[in-house]
Design goal:
The protein is α+β, with helices and mostly antiparallel strands and 409 residues long. It folds into three domains: 98 residues, Roll (Nuclear Transport Factor 2, Chain: A); 138 residues, Nuclear Transport Factor 2, Chain: A, CATH 3.10.450; 119 residues, Glucose Permease (Domain IIA) (Distorted Sandwich), CATH 2.70.70. Helix content is 16%, strand content 37%. Strands 13, 16, 17, 18, 19, 20, 21, 22, 23 and 24 form a ten-stranded antiparallel sheet that branches. The longest helix has 24 residues.
């Protein structure tokens, strides 16, 4: 009798245990009896209370922390003695923050995380001894392909194709030396294979362009990103650098309102005289960049009509001048070395000008030449030691951006 009872008990326990286990297998939360703890900024928050919000207009750190039991002395300490980690005066309205609190009626803050940007944050720990540290969220990189056709502008085309309009800036930087973006034509097309960055499964910003093809003027213009000697740059399918000694233009997204001429009717003086430069019509304040490396040799105000201007000597042969500027970039002064693409000033209408524009002039051996006709030599091609590796990159990515695979919108 006792043996029968023991056997019956064994059956109940065994099959009861199987039923319980089977139930857990069908319960996603209890799958394999393993539950992944929820974390915020590396802190397990399963038993804590989490508050997420944005900094409101005219709201200060003290306004936030006092609501969650942080003392004035701790707030003062943060403001005065942790500036080397993060200066709380740089907290901006609209940025995200998270409070991790005791899960009781007091809701006292244990941690406070302020997001400097979507992936960098500063974390304050109010437990025991107050501490502060910086951290970064994981950035997940995904690749995507976008293609489009020019009907009005590159920016509009990318927006119409559902892409991030900032991709227009990226493409203009890649092709800044080889394609005149003021001369795009209807029917020009592009295909770009590029990176998109995500944080917390949300799209944050663009990564780098991996490969692209800009079909312009009936010609394929390939671009492949390649790293050599610890420096990344763009090259065509033959390994020639897309970079040139001079940029095609000193600013983006404007139009040429007046060309190079030996006899132009001046819009203010109403007389004909030479205009040995290009006028780029653009909104006041549009950034102006140096088209090449060089030294600032002149900066000031030209009384003869040029207004605020900067002159840069690039080498013993070439120099450039930028006129009618609203103002100069910080640090621009005579003797300053600038690199290609550096900000030097902003479009304005100082001097004799009817509206905001940049008068851009190019000189060879002291003589003005048409900037559109400057033949700029390319930078160095792929190093011979990297040719085989570069060829493999082209073989892998060129099929993704070939013109024949282009699908019109």
């Amino acid at each position: 009798m006792i043996k029968q009872l023991v056997f019956l008990l064994f059956v109940i326990v065994f099959f009861g245990g199987c039923t319980s286990s089977s139930h857990k297998e069908n319960n996603k939360e209890g799958e394999n009896d393993i539950r992944i703890p929820k974390t915020e900024y590396g802190i397990i928050v399963d038993s804590l209370y989490v508050v997420k919000d944005k900094v409101k207009k005219n709201e200060f750190l003290a306004d936030i922390l006092l609501r969650y039991g942080v003392s004035y002395s701790d707030i003062d300490y943060i403001a005065r003695f942790t500036r080397d980690t993060f200066d709380v005066r740089k907290i901006r309205s609209g940025n995200n923050y998270t409070l991790i609190c005791d899960n009781d009626s007091s809701l006292k803050a244990l941690y406070f995380a302020y997001e400097i940007n979507p992936y960098r944050y500063v974390l304050y720990d109010f437990q025991d001894s107050l501490s502060v540290s910086r951290g970064a969220k994981e950035i997940v990189v995904r690749t995507d392909t976008l293609c489009g056709e020019i009907t009005s502008s590159l920016w509009n085309s990318i927006a119409a194709a559902g892409g991030d309009p900032n991709l227009a800036n990226k493409l203009s930087e890649v092709y800044a030396w080889t394609i005149d973006f003021f001369g795009l034509q209807k029917g020009d097309r592009y295909i770009v294979y590029y990176e998109r960055q995500y944080v917390d499964n949300k799209y944050i910003e663009l990564g780098k362009i991996i490969a692209a093809n800009f079909y312009h003027g009936g010609t394929d213009n390939y671009a492949f990103y390649f790293l050599q000697n610890d420096k990344g740059d763009y090259f065509d399918e033959k390994g020639n650098s897309l970079q040139r000694t001079f940029l095609k233009a000193p600013l983006r997204y404007s139009r040429i309102s007046s060309g190079f001429s030996n006899s132009r009717l001046h819009p203010v003086l109403k007389i004909r005289r030479p205009h040995h430069g290009l006028d780029y019509a653009a909104p006041s304040g549009t950034p102006v960049h140096s088209v090449g490396d060089g030294i600032v040799v002149k900066k000031g105000y030209q009384k003869r009509g040029g207004g605020n201007y900067v002159k840069i000597k690039h080498n013993g042969t070439y120099s450039t001048t930028y006129m009618h500027l609203r103002g100069f970039a910080r640090g621009i002064k005579v003797g300053k070395h600038v690199n290609q693409g550096d900000l030097i000033g902003y479009v304005g209408k100082t001097g004799l000008a009817t509206g905001p524009h940049l008068d851009f002039r190019f000189y060879r051996n002291g003589k003005a030449i048409n900037p559109l006709k400057v033949e700029s030599p390319p930078a160095k091609p792929i190093d011979s030691a990297y040719v085989a590796l570069f060829d493999s990159v082209v073989k892998r990515f060129q099929p993704l951006v070939k013109y024949k695979t282009f699908k019109p919108l």
